[in-house]
Amino acid sequence: MANILVVEDEKSINDLITMNLKLVGHHFCKSYNGTDVIQFLKQEKFDLILLDIMLPGMDGFELMQHIRAYNIPVIFLTAKESLSDRITGFELGAEDYIIKPFEILELLARINVVLRRAKPSDDLFVLGEAEVKLLERQVLKDDQPVELTAREFDLLEVLIRNRNIALSREKLLELVWGYDFLGETRTVDVHIRQLRKKLGWEERIVTIFKLGYRLNAEV
Amino acid sequence: MKFWLKTLLVVLVLFVVALDISVVMIMNKSWSLNTEREIQRASSEQALIANNIYENLTSIMSRGSSVDDEILHNVTYSYAKNYLQQGVTLQLWNQEQLLYPKDMNHLIKPDIPFEQIEEQGIHYIQFSHKLPPPYDHLLLVYTRDIEELYDNQRELNRFFVTINFTISPALMILLFLFIRQLTKPLRLLSKTTKHIAEGDYSERVLLYNKDEFGELSQNFNRMAEAIEQRMHELSEMAEEKQRIVDNLAHELRTPLTSMQGFAEYLRSANIGEEERGTATHYIWTETMRLKSLAFKLLDLSVVGRKPLELQRIPVEELFNSVQQTEMKNMRDSRIKLIVHRDIDYVYGDFDLLATFLVNCLENSIHASVEGGEIRLMAYELDEEAVLEVRDFGIGMTAQQVARAFEPFYRADSARSREHGGAGLGLSLCRQIAEAHDARLSLQSKQHSGTSVHLILQLHNNSSTTP
């Protein structure tokens, strides 16, 4: 889907982020310090940079000066939560500012927002016999169009964007129906059943015990 | 009321009052002298005229003429005419009968020899004396106009008031200029204090008088310097505290983020055995890291608080214990440890000194290249006991040395984190040194190595050195 450069000196966190990016189908490069970033920028084309601020070599704020020339969106990912740091981050042109510790689902959601804003791509997702055109909101099964309600498509999109990651019913309600929706989690079950039936994904959308649902796809 | 205004008013009032009192006294004195003189003069003139009349009468008598009222009148008249110009009038009474001047029936015979009279706004002095016998039935009244004296006095009074009204404002202006000049240092001081109060601690009073003000401003400047120094120290301390808090937040957040993240990953992601292994490995190592951080922080807070009981510690035992703890680490890095022992005993707390040496040794191991050499030494220098750990590794820059004892500071964050360090080792060492009342020194040069000295007091071990 997108090519993302992860700049984070903590090896564990760098791995955590990239392993999750891999799950939902993004490509990535890892950089453990500031100075390597410049080299990466010269060699490859990135759609997004996740940037820590406290880095050995060159800190994130300094790096922004170099990144600006490439016109790549940047999300700061940092433990520095002071208002002044956040303001500095946004002033330097960051798209978003995420404070550690963060939730992976939140990180992925924010990544999607930034990617969609920066480059509305004709995302095509193919799984088995089904083919989903995310931008055009079209679904084909065996080259035949499948009729989905707007909610069903929203739910499908959330599942695809967070594929291989289990989503709780509450989380799905929040992401698909919105915060202020007062419905019950049973609503989610009903829509999931519909999706499974219409797309023939009974085996793909799996129920995870005590958690929720997960769309399994090839990593 | 401002000081200068107060001074001005007080001085002005005092001056004017003093001046006026003295002038009034002088004027009074001169007035009394003048009147006295006038009275004297009048008295002697009266006596002279009386005598002259007496002589005239005597000579008239000797010529055989009788002295009747007509003659008396004429004689008196001749004198009176003479003296009239000088403001003197004469009366001559025979018993109760007025002989001269005639036809002045309103006049009353005076019954006292001297009096001052005021008549129609004009002042007189009057002497009434009898002529010498045998004419002692005759009374000569001498009246002198002394209005001129009063005129002079009035003139003087007017002049005095004028002077008062002209001198006072002039004096006021002069006093104003003078006092403003005198209080200038005060205003300067006040201005500077105001600036300092507003937070500009670098402000100084530029006053070089040799008087009390100069002294005051010198002392003031000294105070301002002390304050500036103190403020500087305070803000530095606050900055260090802020850095420590920031660092602690970072040290806690990083392992928590990855533990939370990997746990979530394990729970919800569609992954294989390999990813599962990676995730559990990270959860394990990060837990260990948090644990070590927690214990180090605990050590740090405990060391400073509990009172220390110094004990006689055999250096050999101490070194053995430290070597045992670090044996595996040293073997892994193929480090050669050289132990050098000049003294047998030091005074201190065994566990704390061991912790101190272990921390220093760990730092040295991390700083050294594989196969390097580390020295662990105990010796006496300048009548003090020294424990030293020296390595020949990468060393530190001057800036790194300056911050080395700061909690969470890591000279090389990436390397140190690989070894699981939180950047608390040297902070703990400093606490341990403080608990022992010992000095701690760290010398380091980039690419040539670092040495840490713990200098323990002599009186603890003077009797035990060999």
Automatic annotation (TrEMBL), chain A:
<feature type="domain" description="Response regulatory">
    <location>
        <begin position="3"/>
        <end position="115"/>
    </location>
</feature>
<dbReference type="GO" id="GO:0000976">
    <property type="term" value="F:transcription cis-regulatory region binding"/>
</dbReference>
<feature type="DNA-binding region" description="OmpR/PhoB-type">
    <location>
        <begin position="122"/>
        <end position="217"/>
    </location>
</feature>
<dbReference type="GO" id="GO:0000156">
    <property type="term" value="F:phosphorelay response regulator activity"/>
</dbReference>
<dbReference type="InterPro" id="IPR036388">
    <property type="entry name" value="WH-like_DNA-bd_sf"/>
</dbReference>
<dbReference type="InterPro" id="IPR001789">
    <property type="entry name" value="Sig_transdc_resp-reg_receiver"/>
</dbReference>
<keyword id="KW-0238">DNA-binding</keyword>
<keyword id="KW-0805">Transcription regulation</keyword>
<feature type="modified residue" description="4-aspartylphosphate">
    <location>
        <position position="52"/>
    </location>
</feature>
<dbReference type="GO" id="GO:0006355">
    <property type="term" value="P:regulation of DNA-templated transcription"/>
</dbReference>
<feature type="domain" description="OmpR/PhoB-type">
    <location>
        <begin position="122"/>
        <end position="217"/>
    </location>
</feature>
<protein>
    <submittedName>
        <fullName>DNA-binding response regulator</fullName>
    </submittedName>
</protein>
<dbReference type="GO" id="GO:0005829">
    <property type="term" value="C:cytosol"/>
</dbReference>
<dbReference type="InterPro" id="IPR001867">
    <property type="entry name" value="OmpR/PhoB-type_DNA-bd"/>
</dbReference>
<keyword id="KW-0804">Transcription</keyword>
<dbReference type="InterPro" id="IPR011006">
    <property type="entry name" value="CheY-like_superfamily"/>
</dbReference>
<keyword id="KW-0902">Two-component regulatory system</keyword>
<dbReference type="GO" id="GO:0032993">
    <property type="term" value="C:protein-DNA complex"/>
</dbReference>
<dbReference type="InterPro" id="IPR039420">
    <property type="entry name" value="WalR-like"/>
</dbReference>
<keyword id="KW-0597">Phosphoprotein</keyword>
<dbReference type="Pfam" id="PF00486">
    <property type="entry name" value="Trans_reg_C"/>
</dbReference>
<dbReference type="Pfam" id="PF00072">
    <property type="entry name" value="Response_reg"/>
</dbReference>
From TrEMBL, chain B:
<dbReference type="InterPro" id="IPR036097">
    <property type="entry name" value="HisK_dim/P_sf"/>
</dbReference>
<dbReference type="InterPro" id="IPR003594">
    <property type="entry name" value="HATPase_dom"/>
</dbReference>
<feature type="domain" description="HAMP">
    <location>
        <begin position="180"/>
        <end position="232"/>
    </location>
</feature>
<keyword id="KW-0175">Coiled coil</keyword>
<keyword id="KW-0812">Transmembrane</keyword>
<keyword id="KW-0597">Phosphoprotein</keyword>
<keyword id="KW-1133">Transmembrane helix</keyword>
<dbReference type="GO" id="GO:0005886">
    <property type="term" value="C:plasma membrane"/>
</dbReference>
<dbReference type="InterPro" id="IPR050398">
    <property type="entry name" value="HssS/ArlS-like"/>
</dbReference>
<protein>
    <recommendedName>
        <fullName>histidine kinase</fullName>
        <ecNumber>2.7.13.3</ecNumber>
    </recommendedName>
</protein>
<keyword id="KW-0547">Nucleotide-binding</keyword>
<keyword id="KW-1003">Cell membrane</keyword>
<keyword id="KW-0067">ATP-binding</keyword>
<feature type="transmembrane region" description="Helical">
    <location>
        <begin position="7"/>
        <end position="27"/>
    </location>
</feature>
<dbReference type="Pfam" id="PF00672">
    <property type="entry name" value="HAMP"/>
</dbReference>
<dbReference type="InterPro" id="IPR005467">
    <property type="entry name" value="His_kinase_dom"/>
</dbReference>
<dbReference type="GO" id="GO:0000155">
    <property type="term" value="F:phosphorelay sensor kinase activity"/>
</dbReference>
<keyword id="KW-0808">Transferase</keyword>
<keyword id="KW-0472">Membrane</keyword>
<dbReference type="GO" id="GO:0005524">
    <property type="term" value="F:ATP binding"/>
</dbReference>
<feature type="transmembrane region" description="Helical">
    <location>
        <begin position="159"/>
        <end position="179"/>
    </location>
</feature>
<dbReference type="Pfam" id="PF02518">
    <property type="entry name" value="HATPase_c"/>
</dbReference>
